[in-house]
Amino acid sequence: MSEAIELVSPPPRLRLLGEFRLELGTEAVELCRNGQRLLALMGLRGRVCRTVLAGTLWPEVTEEHARGSLRTTLWKLPRGEPPLIGCCGDSLWVAPVLRVDVHTLTQTALGVVQGCGPPLHARPPLGVLTGEDLLPGWDEDWVLAERERLRQLRLHALDALAEALIRQGRPALAMEAAWASVRAEPLRESAHRAVVSAHLAEGNVSEAVRHYHAFCRLLNEELGVEPSPRFARMLPERLPVRVTSRGRDGRRGWAG
User: Fold this and answer.
1) How far is CA 128 from CA 44, 47, 49, 104, 131, in A?
2) 247 φ, ψ to 5°?
3) Do the beta carbons of residue 48 and residue 42 sit within 8 Å?
4) Alpha-carbon span 18 to 40, nearest angstrom
5) Which among 212, 211, 205, 237 has a CA at the least distance from the CA of 226?
6) What is residue 82's predicted lDDT score, i.e. its pLDDT?
7) What is the value of pTM for the model shown?
8) Where do the H-state alpha helices sit in the chain?
9) Within 13 Å and on the Cβ side, how many CA atoms surround 30?
10) Of 8, 18, 140, 179, which has the most beta carbons under 10 Å away?
């Protein structure tokens, strides 16, 4: 007798990092623009009062009109069991079964910032921390605010991850985290400090000094300011002399 194999469908997934995408089972579901906006806001906040939700999504119309638009948009959402959006009194909430990628990013980043970095031999979560921005091209105020919050959280997590990897004796991976932060925000001093720290951890003093001076030039050209004294103190006060080419008498010269 052959055994029956029960196929378990994957949980529904809502992707907000990069282009909006709702997946039910193995299929992507097309939604109208208002449906996307509703699910995106609910996915970010989890539980929202109807009045607040309607006013946030339709701020330029009357409250009655906004609540009517909300009812219409809710009715057009895909049907399922359990439903994607639940209702309790005047509040709406996201079904716990819905997996939202922003939550994975937030939990990972907060874990790193709070000192719960990767175990010594574990792979650092660079993929999660270096993904796409929240809903690129969406310009509504609630999206802009959340996008900037996530950007700052990512940057702090990358800086903290680089420091943790240096402490663990993994400077090459620390350099990857530090450069990811630099690419995201080229004028961010803490990211450049992490790059220099990784160079120094490997004993590459000349590369650390070269990077520091390159950042000094960039900061002066863009903002007309200098790095903080804290950054300068990371470097040796006096660099070791280096051997120059041979002189006419055949002996090596020294540069201080």
Assistant:
1) 17, 25, 31, 8, 6
2) -80, -175
3) yes
4) 12
5) 212
6) 79
7) 0.84
8) 33-45, 50-57, 63-76, 101-113, 126-129, 141-167, 171-184, 189-201, 205-223, 229-232
9) 0
10) 179
